[in-house]
Amino acid sequence: MSTLFISDLHLDNKRPNVINFFINFLDNLNNDVKTIYILGDFVEYWVGDDDPAIGLQEVFKLIKKISQNINIYFMHGNRDFMISKKYCEENGIKLLNDPTVINLYNKKILLMHGDTLCIDDIEYQKFRQMVRSEKWQKEMLKKSLNERLLLAKNLREKSKSETDNKDEFIMDVNSEEVKKIILKYNVDILIHGHTHRPNIHKIFCNNKEVKRIVLGDWYDKSYILELNQDKVSVWKNNLS
Length: 240
Prior knowledge:
The protein has 240 residues and is α/β, with parallel strands linked by helices.
């Protein structure tokens, strides 16, 4: 039995090759796979459950189909936090809180999207607090679909512009915050995405070695983490 972890696919109809790769991935899952965790930024943007999800309908239909035999878990990222619990349930997906602790193969594992670890990016943390508030989301959903789609487009462009002008270290996790969260939950492994900097870090914390596994994004390559009883495996494939 094995468990898969993915994040930061940023599925978008403008990148059909990634959508097709993901569909093929789901269609050809090994029989040993019993659970898939999607740790945020599954789609490029989401403006509410009336989002047309252009190019993604087949993806959600397939997820609903395979969820009859495989557990599919999803955690909000900074692009898809407007996907509701109701929409998840209708499509066979179990919505997770961020963070969430699971016990797997005799290991205590902390799952996060990862953006809350980037505390040096003060502007982003303020923005995150605003858009994750119930008040902001209610006001957002009062707008017409076209207004929300335009706003999402503008926010993506603004985010890209700001990212291009920020120092690299600001957008990465804060090492002290990582240790703080590991100590808080007393875990053996921390798995997250968001930073697009895939790696397996070993941290000595709480008198033991803790692994921080950073998932990669699906731009040039797919990035799939597999855990089973015996080992940790990382699978990469070119998407071009």
